[in-house]
Amino acid sequence: MANHATEQASEIVSATDEPRGADKDAPLKEDIRLLGRLLGDVLREQEGEEVFAVVETIRQTAVRFRREADAGAAKELDGMLKILTKEQTISVVRAFSYFSHLANIAEDQHHIRRSRAHLLAGSAPRRGSLGYALCKLKDAGVDQDTVQGFFKDALISPVLTAHPTEVQRKSILDAEHDIARLLAERDLPLTPKERAANLHMLRVRIATLWQTRMLRYTKLTVADEIENALSYYRITFLREVPGLYDDVEEEIAGQYGAAADAVQIPHVDAPFLQMGSWIGGDRDGNPNVNADTMRHALERQATTILDFYLDEAHALGADLSISTLMVACSPELQALADASPDQSDHRKDEPYRRALIGIYARLASTARTLGAAHILRKEVGHAEPYADAAAFSADLQVLIDSLEANHGGMLARPRLTTLKRAADVFGFHLASLDMRQSSDVHERVLTELFARAGAHADYASLDEDAKVQLLLAELAQPRLLYSPYIDYSDETQSELSIFRAARDVRQRYGERAIRNYIISHTETVSDLLEVFVLQQETGLLRRDKDGRTTADLMVIPLFETIPDLQRAAGIMRDVMAIPLVKELIEQRGRIQEVMLGYSDSNKDGGFLTSNWELYKAEIALIDVFGKAGVKLRLFHGRGGTVGRGGGPSYEAILAQPKGTVNGQIRLTEQGEIIASKFSNAEIGRRNLGLLVAATLEASLMPPVAHPEHREQLAGFEAVMTELSDRAYKAYRNLVYETPGFTDYFFAATPIAEIAELNIGSRPASRKSTKRIEDLRAIPWGFSWGQCRLLLPGWFGFGSAIAGWLADGDREQRVAQLRDMHAHWPFFATLLSNMDMVLAKTDLAIASRYAELVADKELRERIFKRICDEYRQTLECLETVTGARERLAGNPLLARSIQNRFAYLDPLNHLQVELIKRRRALAATPDKADPRVHRGIHLSINGVAAGLRNTG
Questions:
Q1: Helix or strand or coil: residue 157?
Q2: I want to staple 488 with a disulfide (CB 3.0 to 4.6 A). Which of 53, 351, 492, 861 is the partner?
Q3: Which stretches does UniProt call biased (Basic and acidic residues) (predicted)?
């Protein structure tokens, strides 16, 4: 999938769409210089001239090291860093880390600035926008009814996940949000006095940042991760998701010729865009997630959304001062007003206000009932709580209908209609919380339940056919395996309590609060049936008196490793043929979700093979689902890095095989990417729009049906199969077959430090080993990003291409690869992603990390192999694309990356020095210094912020 975060710049403002003229990046450079100067002023003031001078000297020397690959500069850096005091080291790390954060703010503001410039200039809709997608569909002959039908049935769902490397404190997020607002102000006409005041407040907020602890120094909890995610709802999602619905309606009206007034704009009522979350429900490898954390997650989500509803209802009460002495209202609205606890004579003629006072009272009562009581303003009097969010939405519709029927339609927009949209999209649950657990845990739980019930002595020892037979027999039984009079293991009790909590949560917050159950490491049909049995044990799967079976949770397989992806279609064919499963799928509208794991498949087989096996799995799943008459919804488990499936969502969705989207897509948003995409409301709305636009295009654009195209595609796929086989062997040979590679990895990257520090609630490894197989994919990829090798995003490609070209007619094969790059979105996107990764890869910086490997022979042997593959990959990429410079097709992103290096490189050099210190102190634990750990943690955050897609 393709470029990223600052990469989002390439999604939001394509370099090819820029109007010609003066240097359009000049305002960005000015903003960066301004923020850098203010940070320097604060550094001088807070830490003294000496520390400021050290920072500047390190920066200049690092620039010389980069530009000249100067060995003398490397020695100078080493010398400077070694003599820094511990306090100075922390100050220098903080200075460069904060610059990365400030540069991100400046870039985000510049993206907004350029987008506004396009709108003001009346430019044609940009690629990736809703307007562009609808224009393209209209030109292709897709009519308005088809487009509106798409939104009626679609589900597009970004799913926020916790991340062990990026949970910023709310204090930092708030300060940075304020800096972004002040920076945006400077584009407005300001008087000299206003400009001076603005500059003063920028300096104040940067000083506040400096005096605020950047990171937490206690172990992160799941509750911390929940609060971090909720902050993005307050900043972006609560208003921008409903606002996007307005954008869709207005763009349909604009593209299909309707006049853009409120009466004629076509309504899109179905909640096609919904938020999802894993935070509090994902317990795969995280012992800190249990029934209590799941309940806590929903309680905090409900509090967040009900706070929003209460604030908006209060504000609407002030806005809608409409009097029946001036204009009539509907009988339904009058009835709503008469039912309000507000009977003040002063408002007898103001039915909208009285109705909203009643709505506010019902919301307050609802909040208390749901355990989400956080009522800032006491209601006028008691009212019964809402039974569900649909009842709340219905009351708001009464207000809207009355306004529209009585010359007040314009008064409903934007606040009232936005609130109504929010009620339909967010309900009282805010986001659907997915449950996730590993299949081996389910097997252990059922082995104990079967044994204690006397149903089977050792379920785990059965072969697959016997397991399936036993599970299906159990699902046909009216009795339960579990008995409240038997003692079970802690694991079994915990797992059953989580299922019971899911049942309670659904009853409390609504059915959309929890509706999906994801099974990690799905390898067999029995892995899915086990979860149906566990639902039956806890009241989530039931039979009525007529024998009709219902299951509350959709059981979703997650296929992660290369072998799992290869088995995916066969497993789904077999499981969907089971009568019980067919019945349950039928009840859900003949739709079934499948999740594909990008991170683990990459760690297992490398970048090229992972992408190809994912593609092939999707093709095979389309075929199986088509024959079964079931609609496929794919859930893409994408990470932040390209090595974990990252890249622009727009390009990624369009590169999917035809037939895999069909208006149904879910995808994870993780780590620094959440902050990059959604910490600014305007950029957040555009990134959400990109998802919708891409899904529209991928779902509705008519396919190319020429026979020669199908034949060409078959040829492309045959070449990819050969390339994948070669890349797989090269990657596996290095990572899993090279003696000493694991030792090299643990020494030459900060993986050990990442595992030790309080960076997340989830352990870095699934088991207490140093095996690559047991390491989680997130810290695996993150560690390679920190040392600037980003190996999971490119290794194996060079060997694959070079070997394939050498085994045939080179000229003919080069032509075929270029043809693939020009005409196959999958291959073009793959190369685009890799191009970006290679632009961020830096062998000179990586060599500093390699020096951390004490065994010289091991260091030189493995680092040389990596360097050789890197150079071969560059050569092969240039051969295929014809571009000698990285990111030649995206100069905006290329400049962004280049501008960061002067401030990013010093952080890497400092990180190496701090790791040396920590490892030296590890031999004498009594001399361990928390300041060294703190410095490493700060450097990790700074490098991650600088790269913007490393998690």
A1: strand
A2: 492
A3: 17-26
840 classed as catalytic:
no
Residue 483 lies in a domain: yes
Helix (H, G, I), strand (E, B) or coil at 158: strand
Active site residue 420: no
For residue 453, the model assigns a pLDDT of: 96
> In terms of domains, do 451 and 406 share one?
no
| Residue closest to 181 by CA, chosen among 242, 227, 117, 235 | 235
Residues in the chain: 951
* Beta strand 155-160 pairing with 276-277: parallel
Q: Which residues pair with 556 in a beta bridge?
A: 518
731 and 797 both lie in a single domain:
yes
Asked whether residue 726 falls in the same domain as residue 618, the answer is: no
Catalytic residue among 163, 456, 631, 729: 163
In this prediction, residue 688 carries a pLDDT of: 95
Query: What is the mean pLDDT for each group of 10 consecutive residues in the chain (951 residues)?
Result: 37 37 79 94 94 88 73 77 87 91 90 88 90 94 93 94 64 88 95 97 96 78 89 95 94 76 64 96 91 96 96 95 95 96 88 96 95 79 95 98 95 93 97 97 98 97 98 93 96 98 97 97 97 97 90 97 96 98 96 92 92 96 97 86 60 88 91 81 93 95 71 93 97 96 95 70 56 80 91 96 97 97 93 92 93 96 97 97 88 78 86 91 73 87 76 37
88 CB burial (10 A radius; 0-12, 13-18, 19+): middle
Q: Are 651 and 729 members of one domain?
A: no
Cβ pair 380, 342 in contact under 8 A: yes
Residue 206's CB is within 10 A of a number of other CB atoms, namely 23
User: Cα–Cα distance between 423 and 420 in angstroms, integer?
Assistant: 5
Give Rg (Cα) of the chain: 29
Q: How many domains does the chain have?
A: 3
Residue 321 DSSP one-character state: -
Q: Which residues contact 136 (CB under 8 A, 6 or more apart)?
A: 697, 701
**Which of 870, 897, 662 is CA-nearest to residue 784?**
870
pLDDT at 261: 45
Claim to verify: residue 397 and residue 443 sit in the same structural domain: no
Are 421 and 414 contacting, i.e. CB atoms less than 8 angstroms apart? no
Is residue 792, in this structure, part of any structural domain at all?
yes
Task: For the beta carbon of residue 447, count every other beta carbon within 10 angstroms.
Answer: 18
Residue 437's DSSP bridge partners are 519
String of DSSP letters for 278-346: -TTTB-TT-TT--HHHHHHHHHHHHHHHHHHHHHHHHHHHHH----TTTS---HHHHHHHHTSS---GG
Same domain, 442 and 578: yes
> Which one-letter DSSP state was computed for residue 620?
H
Q: How far apart are CA 784 and CA 749, in angstroms?
A: 7
For residue 813, count other CB atoms closer than 10 A to its CB: 16
Q: Which of 603, 631, 677, 909 is catalytic?
A: 603
Do 330 and 459 share a domain, yes or no? no
For 176, the token pair is 């940075």
Question: Which tokens belong to 249?
Answer: 């309606």
Same domain, 399 and 458: no
Query: What tokens were used for 544?
Result: 């009525």
Measured in Å, how far apart are the chain's first and last C-alpha atoms? Answer: 15
Average pLDDT of the chain? Answer: 89
Closest to 91 in 3D by CA, of 53, 61, 126, 118: 53
